[in-house]
Amino acid sequence: MLSRQDYRAHDALIEPVRPTAQLWRLVIGLILVAGVYLLCNQMFFQFLGTVLGPGAVGFFTSLNGGTSPVSMLILLGTFGFMTLGVAVAVRVAHNRGITSVFGDFSRTRRQFLDVLIVLLVLNAAIFVLPPWGMGVDLAPNLGFSTWMLILPLSVGAVLVQVSAEEILFRGYIQQQLAARFRPRVVWLIVPSLLFGLGHYMPLQAGPNATLIALWAVMFGVLMADLTARSGTLGPAIAVHFVNNVAAILFVSLPDGLSGLSLYVTPFSMEDADTLRAWLPVDFALMFVSWLGARLALRR
Known about the structure:
This protein is mainly α and 299 residues long. The protein has one domain. It has 13 helices and 3 strands. It has helices spanning 8-14, 23-52, 56-65, 69-77, 80-94, 99-102, 105-128, 144-180, 184-198, 202-205, 209-230, 234-250, 272-297, and strands spanning 139-140, 251-252, 263-264. A 3-stranded mixed beta sheet has the order 1-3-2. Helix 5 packs parallel to helix 8, helix 7 packs across helix 13 (272-297) and helix 8 runs antiparallel to helix 9. The radius of gyration is 20 Å and the shape is globular. The relative contact order is 0.15.
């Protein structure tokens, strides 16, 4: 059973939010986030269409699947518009700056690095222990020299993507709900359900769509817990970053978002039975990462 002291750092994170914690402000803020995100995306892709001319149709077709390095870098980079949307929302609807979403900056950076180091060691240990190659025959995707050449861009793009999602869900939405509602279940569950809804993909995942969405909900709850324990977004961003680096840059599914990965699995998202068999492993790795982050926070 969690004591109040476990989440005392959360009180400092939400204190600046209390004067503007009205629900109507959150609703307006979310509308602004969505509006800025969609508008910036539309303007950006219209610009690309103008620059590419007749070749735009083929490029946008490949962009939807994220099967090339350029398409993946663009898809991940557009999450920066989400961060911009939150910045506009907190300024217009709440009269505060985007930095208030992170918590104390020096503490955010320190906790991010502490958790990152622990998780890198943990994942390196998992990598060198059997079964090697996830117990299946992985197929090469990008050539190693190409993969290494674009790795700095790839890592930066993943950081943009995961930071945007944490800023919105564990930062802005969780902060506002926690400042308005005292019961923890509200700010632990509501943002996580929204996060899971964003990962519900019935067309791509078929019968596993609900399980993948539930995975995202559980991930959201664990990241909300880390944010409340630490009082910053640093740990949640670090866990999300390591998770997505592994899934996007090292081993991905071959039928989508594989443009930056070194290897792809021999099964696709359409292979429902095989994918379902791997989901418990993903759940276990998520839980171990959360425990590793908690250990790092105690240093």
